[in-house]
Amino acid sequence: MRTLEKHAAPLLLVAIAVLLLPGHVYAWQPNTNELTTSIDAGDFTGYFTNVSAWLNQKTPAGAGKISDGAMKALLKDAVFLKALTQRQFMAKHGVDKMGQFAKANPANKKFLAWLLPNTKAMDLYLVGATPTGLKKRQLDTYSLPIASLGLWRKLYDADPDSREGIYLKLAIATAISPPQKMSYVGAHGIGAVPIVPLDRYKHFKTAHKNHELFPIFDTLSVWEYRKIVESWAADRGLKWVREMVNTWRPDLRKNQQVHKIVSEVWRRNSPIPFSKGFITVMEGGGKCGPRSWFGRMTCRAFGIPTVGVGQPGHAAFAAKAADPSSDPQPGSVWKVLYGRGWHVSKTEGVKGPEFLAEAEARAREPEFSQGEHLRWLASALTAKEQAEAVLGVAGSIQKPVPIRADGMVDAAPGADRSSPMLICKPVPEAPIKAAAGVLHVEAETFSGMSGVFVYDCFTGGKQVNYQKNIASSWIEYKIDVPATGTYGLTMRIATPNREQVLDLSCGGDKLAAIPIPNTTGLWGTTQEVSIKLNKGTRTLRFSAPFQRGVAVRWLELKSK
User: Fold this and answer.
1) Residue 324: CB partners within 8 Å, gap ≥ 6?
2) So what's the pLDDT on residue 431?
3) Which residues does residue 466 pair with via DSSP β-bridges, in sequence order?
4) Residue of 228, 172, 229 whose CA lies nearest to 199
5) What is the predicted pLDDT for the residue at 186?
6) I want to staple 460 with a disulfide (CB 3.0 to 4.6 A). Which of 206, 395, 429, 555 is the partner?
7) Cα 252 off chain centre by
8) Does the pLDDT at position 530 exceed 90?
C-alpha cells in the first residue's frame, strides 16, 4: 500500500478548499480559460488545488461505492480523464517547477498550451515514465525531472512530426531517457563523446523513414522506445553497425537475429585501444562487458529494445524478440542473450523474473493503463479510506503477473506477443560489366567449395562468406586464362577484423598470400597482388586459414 503522508500538505489545501464551500458542493469545473491563465502567469497553484478538489468531489464518497465498474466509468469520462492526467503531470514535476518552466521561456508557454490540454500526449509521457517494477510504482515516491520537459519542448519545436504517432512516442522516449555520453571503462577508454538528444531523435526518425529499422520498431511503447534511444553509442556507431551487418552478415537480418553478431567478437581483452569506439570492439575483441555493450548497440541500431543484464561474475544483455517461441527462453518475449537466463539476472534495479513480469504487465496495455490512472487518482484523494479503496480497485484491475518456479512468466491467455519479422530480401541487381582486358568473376560462380556459405547480398546479387575458425575453408574457380603472363588480382571483400589473409593456389602450387584489409565490415577492395598464370583453363583455390570471417563479392584479374 502506498504511503499517503507525503501528499499531506497539498491534500490539506484541497480538503480546506472543499470544506469552505457550502454543503461541500464544489462548483468549480475544469476549464480552458483558467488553464490558459495559469500558463500565461506561470503559476499553477490555484489550478492544481481546484482540479484536485474537483477530482475528490467526482470520486464516489465511501469505500462501498468504489467498485471496478464505477472506477472504469470515471476513466471513460474524457473530462475526468484529462483533469486527472493534468493533476498527475503537475504533481510529478512539481507545481512550483512547472511555473518556473513556464516563466523561463515564451516557447515553453506555447509548448504547455499544446501539451496540457492533450490527454493522449500526457498519458504517453506519464505511463512511459513510470519506473520499472510493481513495487516502485506502488510506492509512488518517484518524481519526474523538469529537464525532460525542456528536452521535449526542443523536439516539439524542431519537428512538427514529433507531435503525433510513432514520432510522438519517440520524442517522449528521447526526452525521458536522453542518450548519455559514450565512454569506456579501463585502460582502453577513448574518453566521453557527447550525444545530442535532438540528433538521436533525428537519427532514428531518418532510419525509420528510410526503412533501415526492423518492423518491430513500429509496434513499441514509450517504455520500450526508451530502451533504444538511450544507447551509449554515438549516432555514427549506430549507422555503422547497421551497414556492417547488412554488408558482411546479411543472413542475420532474417527473423531479427542481429544479436548473434556478438559471436564474432573475440572473447578476450582487447589487445588494441578502443580508438574508434564500438568499431574497435569488433576489431579487437573484449570480455563480457564490451561484448554486452556491442550486442545492445547492434540491437538498438536496428530498432530492437534492449537492456543490460547483470549476472554473478558476468555481463549479458536482453532484447525483445520478434518470435517469443524461439530460443533461448521459449515463451518469453524478452530473451537473455549470451548469459544463463532470467532466474540469475538483474536489470533496471529489479531481479530478472520481476522485469519479465513488468514487461508482461505493460503488454496488457488496457489493464496497465487503468491501474496506473487509479493510482494517480488515489494520490489526489484527501480521505485515506477513499484512497485505499481506489488502490484496491487498481490492484484488482492490474493484477500482478505471477512468476513461475523457473523464473519465467506466462503470457495472458490468447495473447500474441510476436512482432512482424523481416526476411532479408535483396533487390535485383544489374550485371557488372567488366572493363576491357579484365576477367571479372562473381563470387558465387565457384566450381567447388568447403566451409563457406552463399548469402543474398543486402543490395542485390550474391556473396560468399568464409566461416570463422574453419581449418579447411576454401572456394575454387575455373578461369580461362587467355595468355601466359603476369596478372594483377583484386578482390571485393568485407570484414570487420584485422590481420587476415587468403592463400591463393593453383594445381597445388601456392601463388600468393592475399592480405585482407579491415574494411570495418563494409565493402572494400584488396590491394593488387601479382600472380603468374599459364594459358588455358586453370583452377584457382582461395583458402582461409582459421579466419575470423570474410565476405567475398567478386574477384578480377587484369593482364599486366
Assistant:
1) 330, 331, 332, 333, 411, 417, 418
2) 61
3) 452, 550
4) 229
5) 40
6) 429
7) 17
8) yes
- Copy the grid coordinates of residue 36: 490558459
| pLDDT tens digits, 22-74 | 445 558 999 999 999 999 999 999 999 999 999 999 999 887 899 999 999 99
Amino acid at 106: P
Residue 2 has pLDDT above 80, yes or no: no
Of the candidates 454, 419, 81, the residue with the CA atom closest to the CA atom of residue 256:
419
Q: Residue 32, exposed/middle/buried by CB under 10 A (0-12, 13-18, 19+)? A: exposed
CATH numbers and ranges of domains, the chain: 5-397 (no CATH), 438-559 (2.60.120.260)
Task: Order the strands of the 536-543 sheet from edge to edge.
Answer: 448-450, 474-481, 536-543, 500-506, 509-516
Predicted confidence band of residue 4 (pLDDT cuts 50, 70, 90): very low
Summarised one tens digit per residue, pLDDT across range 477-518 is 999 999 999 999 999 999 998 889 999 999 989 999 999 999
Could you please report the per-residue DSSP string of 51-113? HHHHHHHHSPSSGGG--HHHHHHHHH-HHHHHHHHHHHHHHHH-HHHHHHHHHH-HHHHHHHH
350-351 and 314-320 beta bridge pairing: unpaired
Residue 1, judged by CB atoms within 10 A of its CB (0-12, 13-18, 19+), counts as exposed
How far is CA 225 from each of CA 55, 103, 217, 415, 547, rounded to the nearest angstrom? 32, 30, 8, 21, 37
CB hemisphere CA count around 491 (13 angstroms): 23
**Do residues 218 and 421 touch, judged by C-beta distance below 8 A?**
no
> Comparing C-alpha atoms, which of 116, 226, 118, 219 is closest to residue 164?
118
DSSP 261: G
For residue 454, the number of C-alpha atoms closer than 13 Å in the C-beta half-sphere is 13
The residue with greater pLDDT, 413 or 155, is 155
Q: What is the pLDDT averaged over residues 365-372?
A: 96
pTM, rounded to two decimals = 0.91
Alpha helix (H) residue ranges in 381-439: 384-397
The grid cell for 357 is: 513480469
Asked if the model's pLDDT at residue 193 lies above 60, the reply is yes
Of 460, 488, 350, 369, the closest CA to residue 409 belongs to 350
Cα Rg of the chain, angstroms = 30
Query: Does residue 544 contact residue 470 with C-beta atoms inside 8 Å?
Result: yes
Q: Tell me which of 17 and 443 has the higher pLDDT.
A: 443
Residue in the block written with cell 547492434:
298
Helix (H, G, I), strand (E, B) or coil at 176: helix
Per-state percent for the chain, helix, strand, coil, to nearest 5: 45, 20, 35
> How many Å apart are CA 423 and CA 197, to the nearest integer?
31
Three cell numbers, residue 339: 548469459
Length of the chain: 560
Listing DSSP states for 451-515 in one string gives SEEEEE-TTSSEEEEEPTT-SS-EEEEEEEESSSEEEEEEEEEE-S-SSEEEEEEETTEEEEEEE
